Amino acid sequence: MTIMYKLNIYGLLFLLVPFSSSAQEGSISNKFSLHSVSILPVGLFYAEVGDKNDNSISAGPAFAGQANFKYKKNLFGISATVGTEVDIIWSDGVNDWFYEFDLLYGREFKLAKRFYFDVFGGIGMLHKQFDESIRDNGGIGGATYFAVPLQVKLKPLVTGRFAIGFQLQATISGEKPLFTGGLLLQYHRESKF
Predict the structure, then answer these.
(1) Is 158 within a domain?
(2) Residue 17 belongs to some domain of the structure
(3) Would the CA dihedral through 45, 10, 147, 105 be positive or negative?
C-alpha cells in the first residue's frame, strides 16, 4: 500500500463523518457528531532510533492536529503528527523526521468546573525517515510501522468552548517508543458550562 493511498483513505474517512447534531447541551446525544478540534502548535518529540539503525537519539519540534467525534460518552478521534530533528551545530542539512496518522478511541473526564482530562488509545501508522549518515553506515533509509498510540490531554478551560492545556503521547511500534508532548489548543463544539 503506497503512502498516497493511505493518505487518501484517511482523508475520505474524515470527510464522510457527519458533522451535525441536534442534541441539547448537557444531555447525552445518541448521534455521532463533532466534539472538538485541537492542535499542538508548540511540541517536542523524543525517540531512540533502535535496532534497525545505530541506537542514536532523535529529538526536535513536533506539530499535531486532531478532530474528535462523540457518540454518547465515547470519543473517536482522527489524529496526524509530524516532527523533525533539529541539528544546530553539526547540521548536514538532512535530518531524521517522522509522520504519524492515528485512529483513536477515548473518554473525557471532568475533574472540576473548568478542568477536563482526556484519555485515548488506538491504532495508527508511523513512518520514520532516517538521515543520510545512517544509510551510509548500513542502516535503513526509512520504515513504516503499525503503531499503538496512547494519549493524555490536560485541558483547563479558558472559556466555555476553548481550552489551553498540555498533551502527552507515547507511540508504541516495531521500533522503540516515540514520545511527543507540548502545548494544546482545543476548541469544543458545545459549551462546557
Answers:
(1) yes
(2) no
(3) positive
Is residue 10 in a domain?
no
**Which amino acid makes up residue 12?**
L
Phi, psi of 168 (to 5 degrees): -125, 140
Q: What does the pLDDT read at residue 140?
A: 62
- Reported as a single tens digit per residue, the pLDDT across 60-79 is 999 999 999 999 999 999 99
Residues 6+ apart with CB under 8 A from 127: 3, 98, 99, 100, 142, 143, 144, 145
Question: Taking a C-beta distance cutoff of 8 angstroms, is the pair 123, 100 a contact?
Answer: no
Looking at residue 117, which CATH number applies to its domain? Answer: 2.40.160.20
Number of domains making up the chain: 1
Q: How far does Cα 145 stand from its chain's mean position?
A: 15
Contact 57, 48 (CB under 8 A): yes
| Structural contact between residues 117 and 155, judged by C-beta atoms closer than 8 angstroms | yes
Q: Are 107 and 75 in contact (CB under 8 A)?
A: yes
Q: Where are the beta strands (DSSP E) in 7-73?
A: 33-48, 57-71
Q: What span, in angstroms and rounded, lies between the C-alpha atoms of 19 and 1?
A: 29
Q: Would residue 1 count as lying in a domain?
A: no
Asked if residue 122 lies in contact with residue 149, where contact means CB atoms within 8 angstroms, the answer is yes
